[in-house]
């Protein structure tokens, strides 16, 4: 609908322009908006062209396709926002767990625990904070 409104506004501004007709010394007929001396003003009426049924159907399909594309883009953006929110909530939980204190460890393939040092815990906190600042705020 906005497209048609824009076309109508553009068309109406074109229709309001004054057009002049003149003949030069060689007998050539010219038209323009800025007339030389002796030019005649010409009244120009916009021609209204009714589209045939096929043209209207093509236009309707085109507008429907654009609407579907817009809706799909909105849905994808909504899904990305939801995924980002879930990711941020997970980062917040991990950061809260690290901030509570305690002993943290990782397990290797054999099941052996490797406990984190204070420096490793602080580095993990900083990495989580940086990641949250980068993607969640």
Please characterize this protein's 3D structure.
This protein has about 140 residues and is of the alpha+beta class. The chain is about 60% helix and about 15% strand. It has three helices and five strands, in the order αβββαββα. The chain has helices at about 1-15, 55-100, 120-135, and strands at about 20-25, 30, 40, 105, 115. The chain has a three-stranded antiparallel beta sheet, with no helix packed on it. Strands 4-5 form a two-stranded antiparallel ribbon. A hairpin with a 5-residue loop joins strand 4 and strand 5. Helix 2 (about 55-100) runs antiparallel to helix 3. The longest helix has about 45 residues, at about 55-100. It is elongated.
What order do the helices and strands follow?
HEEEHEEH
Strand count: 5
Label the overall shape.
Answer: elongated
Distance between the termini: 36 Å
Query: Spatial order of the strands in the main sheet?
Result: 2-1-3
- Secondary structure class reads alpha+beta
What is the radius of gyration?
A: 34 Å
Topology readout:
Layout: H1 2-15, E1 19-23, E2 29-32, E3 40-42, H2 53-99, E4 105-107, E5 113-115, H3 118-135
Antiparallel strand pairs: 1-2, 1-3, 4-5
Key phrases:
single chain; 137 residues; alpha+beta; three-stranded antiparallel β-sheet; two-stranded antiparallel ribbon; 3 helices; 5 strands
Entry summary:
Helix content is 58%, strand content 13%. The chain is an alpha+beta fold and 137 residues long.
């Amino acid at each position: 609908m906005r497209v048609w409104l824009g076309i109508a506004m553009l068309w109406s501004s074109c229709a309001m322009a004054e057009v002049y007709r003149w003949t030069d010394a060689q007998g050539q007929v010219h038209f323009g908006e800025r007339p030389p001396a002796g030019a005649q003003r010409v009244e120009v009426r916009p021609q209204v062209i009714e589209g045939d049924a096929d043209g209207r159907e093509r236009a309707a399909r085109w507008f429907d396709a654009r609407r579907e594309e817009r809706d799909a883009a909105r849905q994808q953006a909504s899904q990305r926002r939801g995924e980002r929110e879930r990711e941020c909530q997970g980062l917040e939980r991990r950061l809260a767990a690290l901030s509570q204190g305690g002993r943290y460890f990782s397990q290797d393939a054999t099941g052996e625990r490797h406990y984190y040092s204070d420096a490793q815990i602080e580095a993990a906190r900083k990495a989580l904070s940086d990641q949250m600042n980068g993607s969640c705020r």
